[in-house]
Amino acid sequence: MTTLDTRIRSRRLMERLGAELVGAPLVAGILILGTALLVGAVATFGSGDINASGWESAAQVARWYAGGVGVYATAVFLPLFVTHGYTRREYTAQVPFFLIAFALAFSLSMTIGYVLEGLIYDWLGWEQGLTNQHIYGTPDEYGLVLLEFVTVGAVWSGVGAALGGAFYRRPALGMVLVPVGIVMIALVELAAGPGYAGPLTAVTGLPVLSDIFGTPTASVAVAVSVASFLAALALMWVIVKDVPIRTKKS
User: Fold this and answer.
1) Of 80, 86, 142, 153, which sits most exposed with the smallest number of CB within 10 A?
2) Is the separation of the CB atoms in 42 and 125 below 8 Å?
């Protein structure tokens, strides 16, 4: 195969993967609508005074979507592309770029959610307060909001890719590696904001870990995110580099 052929195949692969990035704004749109309806219901049937960001809570759900994208990349897309003529090496070489592009799209979509919420809250005279710690102090520090969601989105999707490949290869292997994935995610959540509320709180809420990280900062969050993301990619490669591809029996 010539260098030109390789480049063409690589470009086509990235184009096909890139088409999946549209899911990030679509999911964000659904979350925005759901959050607006929920906050509206609280304002209508509750006290009527809103002083906390509903989008901050919606971001907890969005994280699991990011993890699901990673799982899909190896548990579904990898077998699909291999059965259509691509090698495991060709596909996995593109996965990091896809996950980074997804993290950027994810971050932009989540930041837009804060922007829209801020406009609505200002119009209604509500306070867009935060209940958890972040590397940003207020929802309108959009540069830091973007950075936090890039760090979080990259690790969640990277860990998802490693676990997706593990479960595809052997469900028992996936179960064994779940705690490893939890640690990777918990570290970036602690670095980006120890106040994360969700199923991982049992880990991120451990006093010893909270004391180590302390107040979240952008530099620590980026460093931890890069380390965890690279570790997840390395784990994914080890798992899927020679994974048997299951085919449907006729």
Assistant:
1) 80
2) no
